[in-house]
Amino acid sequence: MTETTPLSHYVRSSRLDYQLRYELLGKALLRVQRWRDQRKLAGLRPREDSVLNPPLRCVAYMKEMMSRHYLEGRYANGVRKVAWVTSGAPAELLKALDFFLIYPENHAALCGVRRKAESLCEEAEHDGYSRDICSYGRTDIGAMLSGKTPAGRLPRPDLLLCCTNICQTVLYWYRVLAAHFGCPLILIDTPFLYHEAEAHQVAYVQRQLEEMVSVAEQVAGRSFSERSFMQVVDHSRRASELWLEVLNRSRHRPAPMTAFDGFIHMGPIVDMRGDPETTDYYERMLDELDERIRNGVGAIKEERYRVLWDNLPIWYKIGDFSKWLGGHGVNVVASTYTYAWGELSPMIDPSKPFESMARVYLHPILNRSTGHKLSSMQRMVDEFHLDGVILHSDRSCKPYSLGQIDQRDHLVQEMGIPALLLEADHNDPRAYAEEQSTQRLEAFIEMMEARA
Amino acid sequence: MSKPEVVAIGTDAGSTTCKLVAVGQGGEVLGSRLEATQPHIELQVGELLGQLRSELGVDGPVPCVATGYGRKLVKDATRSVTEITCHARGVFRDLGHGGTLVDIGGQDSKVIRLGNNGKPVDFMMNDKCAAGTGRFLEYTSARLGVPIDELGRRALSTDREEPITSTCTVFAESEIISLLARGVALEAILRGLHRALVGRIVAMVHNVGLTPPLMLSGGVAHNEAVRALIEEATGERVLLPREPQLMGAYGAALLGTEGKSAA
């Protein structure tokens, strides 16, 4: 297994490199690229041979933001302190200390979309990691060991922040990272919630958040300011609210975006919540969605069936699914996954940053009971006027997939709508069977047709 | 008297057998074909289609609906529909009511819940493991040297049953070999094997929810031990359509007649 070794692919940059290659050249080149993308997108008209309408124009900005983020990461070591954090970690605290943040899960998803995950998983497997481990974990460990990444280069962490509100795998995964990089690991333990959080549970998490400050300060080499923290939390709140509004725009018929768009556009809310640019981005996106709604433009040309997606996306199939389903008149208009970064926004209170962060990070869908997820899905079926539900049974994500068989049965029996359990894996294409999946999806669509 | 006119043809290009059914205006079966699937499904279906057309005197174009795993390879198909919908349609037409339909095919098995209008309401498929499919019986038949159509009768010919602990077709083979080596009677092994297959099917039935009556289609429906053991496990009598193996193709043909006042 992995040993602590000097890793040649994690390099320290000089401040000059950072200023020249990122601040000066990199940002300028990405801006030029964005202008070019904008021009191209503005000129796109609906194509006869496509089942989808042209993509949202704002995607050019998102591409710029995400590329800028990973480009900065490339030159961050030696200039900014770097923390690697789980997707559901209280990142706002580290933002307030000016850490540069890397989200390994988002990085793994990027590898999945670019179809690099399988070979990276194999790198990890060759090092002894079981194929039964989450494919995000294997992808990132593979990238860490080999230095291969479609992002160019990831910065080495000075600090690790792991929160167990999404799964227990992250606990072991981050211990591997800590051993590998020899840096401090902060663990935030979030008790599983069967109902709303009790006061003592909030207090327990709040105390951990307060205690992590001194460790983070030490690594950051600067003092924590509650004022900056409150500001970051405020930006986070606004971004989450906007993200929720963005997702709720798909209640309109035809829906101006698909859940597949959501999977792509969630990059900033995952990686950059707390930054003012993220708020700007979702305001821009919301404007464009409203424009689509005013003009009656849907994401797909002919929306006959509206469907909910449960669980993580199948990253390597996003484009194929979007076109194939669109071709059958199916618009996947909502997903429990993208909703997870918006639905808690009402809990965020910048005036009580520690307490509200404790509350928020206790309540993600994955840290709550299967019954809670079922009622969320049932509510979404009503609110989004849905005709069916696809439950991706994700071999990698056990906490998300647990309970899906019963949830599916309840949806079918109590709501009278078709619901499909689709077996796959979010990042490892070896766990996906094309023919069997297509067969099930076709039968699912035929059942919706039969009901229509 | 002139021959009845063929209104539509259904093709079920399955993983193990290839079936074709031609129906008339009232949805009645006018002709059919059934043979083992060959590697070049496209050519095979083309040939069978030609035979059926000439036998029934079909000259002009007729809607042809394809189903089964090879449905996308049927180049003459006017439409392709999944086996779920086709089996549901065929069986509903033949038996006339909703309920729970079990289709055990060559390489997959399905449990389909039919509404009172015959439309599928819910389904579950097993295609990740051969132990719940006809392939399990074929494999056993070849391994034990018992013809496939005798398997069921031989399994029911004894009250003794040797439990097969393995639920995997491939690993079951090593278990069979060791049981035979221990001198266990062949019939008792066969009964145990049928029990293992039925156990998988019945688990799916309960998963979808058993709404009586219980109906069976697909080639494995011909196996009397499968039927008997399903009845024993569920406490429900199993109903069979007239030609269980042709139900997919029949349903496909009926769907082809839609818009032509049949089915």
CATH architecture of the domain at 6-89 and 246-256 in chain B: 2-Layer Sandwich
SS elements, strand count of chain B: 10
Write out the strand line-up for the largest beta sheet of chain B, numbering strands in chain order. Answer: 3-2-1-4-5
Mean pLDDT of chain B: 92
Q: Low-confidence stretches of chain A at least 5 residues in length (pLDDT < 50)?
A: none
Indicate the overall shape of chain A. globular
- Give me the number of helical elements of chain A: 19
User: Helix content range of the residues of chain A, please?
Assistant: 40-55%
Which CATH class of the domain at 6-89 and 246-256 in chain B?
A: Alpha Beta
Tell me the structural class of chain A: alpha/beta
Determine the CATH superfamily of the domain at 6-89 and 246-256 in chain B. Answer: ATPase, nucleotide binding domain
Distance between the termini of chain B: 24 Å
Question: Which residue ranges of chain B are poorly predicted, with pLDDT under 50 across at least 5 consecutive positions?
Answer: none
The whole-angstrom Rg of chain A is 21 Å
Oligomer: heterodimer
Largest sheet of chain B: 5 strands, mixed
Let me know the average pLDDT of chain A: 95
Number of domains of chain A: 1
Secondary-structure element pattern of chain B, one letter each: EEEHEEHEEEHHHHEHEH
Helix content of chain B: 25-40%
Instruction: Going across the biggest sheet of chain A, name each strand in turn.
Output: 2-1-3-4
List keywords for this structure.
heterodimer; A: 452 residues; alpha/beta; 4-stranded parallel beta sheet; globular; B: alpha/beta; Nucleotidyltransferase, domain 5; 8 helices
Structure description:
- By secondary structure, chain A is an alpha/beta fold.
- Chain A has one domain.
- Chain A contains 19 helices and 8 strands.
- The mean pLDDT of chain A is 95.
- Chain B has 263 residues and is of the alpha/beta class.
- Chain B has a domain at 6-89 and 246-256: Nucleotidyltransferase, domain 5.
- Helices cover 39% and strands 21% of the residues of chain B.
- Chain B has helices spanning 41-56, 83-95, 134-144, 151-156, 169-181, 186-208, 224-234, 247-256; strands spanning 6-13, 17-24, 29-36, 64-67, 79-80, 99-104, 109-114, 120-126, 214-217, 238-239.
- In chain B, the strands form 2 sheets. Chain B has a 5-stranded mixed sheet with strand order 3-2-1-4-5.
- In chain B, a hairpin with a 5-residue loop joins strand 7 (109-114) and strand 8 (120-126).
- In chain B, helix 2 (83-95) crosses helix 8 (247-256), helix 3 (134-144) runs antiparallel to helix 6 (186-208) and helix 6 crosses helix 7 (224-234).
- Chain B is globular.
- The model of chain B has no long low-confidence stretch (mean pLDDT 92).
- The chains are: A alpha/beta (452), B alpha/beta (263).
- At the A-B interface, helix 18 and helix 19 of A face helix 2 and strand 8 of B.
